[in-house]
Amino acid sequence: MNVKKLLHNYLGFLLTLPGMLLIIMILVVPLFSTLYSSFFKLDHLQNGGYVGSANYASLFSDPAIWYSFGITILITVASAGISMVLGLIFALWIDRRTGMVAYLIQLIGLLPWVISMMVGTVLWRWILNGDTGLLNYFLRSLGFSPIIIFESKTASVVTLIIVMAWRTIGYSMVMILAGLKGVDNGLLEAARVDGANTWQVLTHIKLPLIKTPILLSTIVLTMSNFNNNTVPLILTGGGPGTATNVISLELYRMGFTYYKFGQASALSVLVFLVNIVFVVLYVRMIKYDI
Amino acid sequence: MQKRSKRWIAIILTGILSLNLLAGCSAKPVPSQDTGVSNKESKEDASSQTDSTAESGQTDGEQVVRMWTFLDPAAADGRGKALGEIIQNFETENPNIKIVVEPQDWEQMTPKFFAAHAAGNAPDIIWCIMDEMGAALDLGALEPLENLFLKDWSEEEIADIDDSFFNFGTRDGLHYQITHSRNYMAFYYRADLFEEKGLSIPQTWDEFVEVCQALTEVDPQTGIQRYGFGQAFNVDKVDPQIMTARLLEKQGNLFTEEGKANWANETGEEALKFQLDCITEYGITPEAAVNLTGEELFTEFAAGKYAIISGGAVRVPTVRADVPFDPGAVQLMLYPSTDGNGHAPSTINGWCVGVWSGSQVKDAAGKFVEALMSPEADELWVTEGGQLAIRKSTMEKLGDFYQNPDNKYLTIVADGITNAGWPQPTDYPISSWKNDLNRAAQMVMVDGKSVSEALSTVAGDFDTRNGG
Fold this sequence. Notes:
- Chain A is mainly alpha-helical.
- Chain A has a domain at 70-246: MetI-like fold (Orthogonal Bundle).
- Chain A is built from 13 helices and no strands.
- In chain A, helix 10 runs antiparallel to helix 13 and helix 12 (247-256) runs antiparallel to helix 13.
- Chain B is α/β, with parallel strands linked by helices.
- Chain B contains 19 helices and 11 strands.
- In chain B, strands 1, 2, 3, 4, 5, 6, 7, 8, 9, 10 and 11 form an 11-stranded mixed beta sheet that branches.
- In chain B, helix 9 runs antiparallel to helix 10 and helix 18 (433-447) runs antiparallel to helix 19 (451-466).
- The termini of chain B are far apart.
- Mean pLDDT of chain B is 87; it is low at 27-54.
- The interface between A and B is large, with 38 and 44 residues.
């Protein structure tokens, strides 16, 4: 086999090799390293020896972990749902309009996504803060009683959902809008000639044709919300009590506040598995083969 | 032709990626920031060095020393400015040593150091929080200072810095750290409000509650509901709360001799109950305390929401710089006691500055740690940074400085440390005990658990985690 033929056969492999090595180093190696660590007692990063599945057993037997997973799923699904529904509504509305208003709405919608997550969340914290927050300042100015948010379990969960949805509405809107712009006008006109009303055009033509951006946005937002640590940490700090103690916060504290690195590794593996399940579940639910 | 161009572009991109990979694998961690030295010449010099040699170790005869601290030498605050000046002076005197500061979030710096130590790429100098000094020593992460510079010190020089801070964390007679930013938990209070209402410093806890009740009102100037006493029970950015003082007053320690939690008992219950009664019974603390961080407590104090808060004395200059009212009104007082005789003990804290045991430039790092507490540097920390002196000679030299009413708080802190200071134990790990006590407060306030149940739960967690 001459060099030219060898090069022809393996050039693709050689060209992708550095990229694959990079992915292996930054994704695969840490993954297996975490998996390996999860079978050891690593309190304060001191090797306390092999403990088998004890770290996993202690996680499964801890009601706080179950609660944390539960509240994470609730917040993730609710915020992604709100974001997708509002994003779709805005996208459909903008799709029918041109000019400055549509441009401004796109711009305003995208701002929460493009500004720093930390800055946006700190602003919300300041706005909603009890006695010194902007919201209560206005309420008091208008003669209303101030409202309590961060001391109430329910209000904290609802607020977290709203802020996480606020952050991502612009993203879902733009993704869906991009899909809508790709819909062939000829199809829409043909449907109208055939007597289809607006609702029928939406449900039988537009939505089926934009299911790819909807599906992709939903997956991205779900993953983003599920693993989001910044917004819950800054907005509610997981509180009051453990009301908004989402799994990423629990994981962060387990490792970097309480120094239980073995258990934190085990929890990381569980979170990773849940992420995988989410992706598979969504793809299968929609029965769409990416 | 087009296909050939694409192939060449792919080959070139692959080559670039490969080179990046190789460079990434071979490079040591690149510091994120230079020392922030203010003069132009030094900055130009620093930037050129950052490009070529700013990595830990020795390059072309120049030793680069990386340091993690929460201070930023380029910042305008007192401590940052003091550090910047000390680095500048040191680098002038030691042209072959370059100090590279990598400012960190104070709460995450120590866990990051532990992780970096395990990974073998920790900074040469670390500012380790006092709470975790026991764990740092157990990990063997710090080099004894006797191996670096203390072996050359005379008895007189040692005597100048010999105090409870210097002896903190000693093992087998070896010293591993010099405590900077010496801190003491005390009450910040608004002297202007005390004067306005004709109140005096409370000597007992009962008087304290009465004073706080007198100060709880709607501020007529700002319209803000002001509370007599601000507390923060969030588990992030945690400072010890008053139940610590109440516990220490009664039983002297928070832990047993074996390193187990010693707060799930009658004394602990009384202490936690008193702390929470400030919200539920006395009405001097807002319910918002359950989810407030230590950082936010200071911000809200500066905004005028509280008349008194509990916090680390080290922040007085920063708080004074932030307040919209007369900065001189921010004063410190020690904790009261149950019977009015003396003061309830409070936590001594600070940052243990040491040299990483795995450093390739230990001698240079040790030299800078030594320079950080030289007589000149110590004076800068006090006068510029508003910190307590490390050296007794500095305190004597700066007698007039301490007499200034604005610096009165330094004498109060020194009094507290000497007469009512509680250094945290280092013979066993005590990680996150403050978080645990705050969790107990949250369990009672938010989850409706009983005081005893909450304390038992967090004591169990502490023991399991720290192997007590």
